[in-house]
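lol forgot to send this yesterday, sorry. struct tokens for the thing we talked abt
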């Protein structure tokens, strides 16, 4: 998580120089964001990040040498690695979901308005996910065929209370905290508390990973 007393350090990874330049220009105008490096593929990004500290990596998916999915996977294995925002065209890029499974904290469309890019970086740097509940559901619907529920009971589910399982299931269905509160007749603050406990018990970073776990563990099926 970023120390908010200093600028958020960002690395931009994309094989298209114009896209890198565009992000760098937008971010340079922000007093609380600093671009500390650029790379044109995943391998170059890993080499750069081995010698440069960063809080957030904006990662393209389809690049030569090493794609964004593999680079994201390697970064997610680092104990104090930067958080990753995936760049995708969404309508055509079927690797977006794979990147989320690899540990990305969310995704940005390549035509995302600049102010939303900056807001997303701040959210991710603060330790949250930028994949909205409805978009999460859309991604899961689109890539449901990639999800293979575990044939065996995942013992980690036993760490959760019955209510926490209910909340996790509804998160995986794409409901927002407010919608979950309405469905379960509880306060939205209570939903947030339950979600926080779920993430802690399952050792998950954010809402995205919680959704992936719900499907991978078999708690929720793609057809549900």
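and heres what i got for the seq, position by position
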């Amino acid at each position: 998580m970023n120390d908010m007393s200093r600028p958020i350090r960002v690395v931009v990874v994309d094989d298209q120089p114009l896209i890198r330049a565009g992000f760098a220009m937008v971010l340079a105008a922000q007093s609380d964001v600093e671009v500390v490096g650029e790379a044109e593929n995943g391998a170059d990004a890993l080499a750069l990040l081995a010698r440069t500290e960063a809080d957030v990596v904006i990662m393209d998916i389809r690049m030569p040498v090493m794609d964004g999915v593999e680079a994201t996977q390697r970064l997610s294995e680092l104990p104090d690695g930067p958080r990753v925002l995936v760049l995708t065209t969404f309508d055509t890029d079927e690797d977006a979901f794979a990147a989320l499974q690899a540990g990305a904290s969310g995704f940005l469309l390549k035509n995302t308005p600049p102010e939303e890019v900056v807001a997303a970086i701040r959210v991710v740097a603060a330790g949250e996910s930028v994949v909205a509940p409805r978009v999460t559901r859309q991604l899961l619907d689109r890539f449901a065929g990639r999800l293979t529920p575990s044939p065996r009971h995942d013992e980690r589910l036993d760490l959760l209370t019955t209510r926490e399982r209910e909340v996790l299931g509804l998160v995986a269905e794409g409901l927002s905290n407010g919608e979950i509160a309405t469905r379960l007749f509880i306060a939205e603050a209570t939903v947030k508390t339950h979600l926080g406990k779920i993430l802690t018990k399952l050792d998950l970073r954010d809402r995205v990973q919680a959704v992936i776990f719900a499907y991978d563990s078999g708690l929720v099926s793609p057809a549900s």
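DSSP finds ten helices and five strands in the chain. anyway ping me if u want another try
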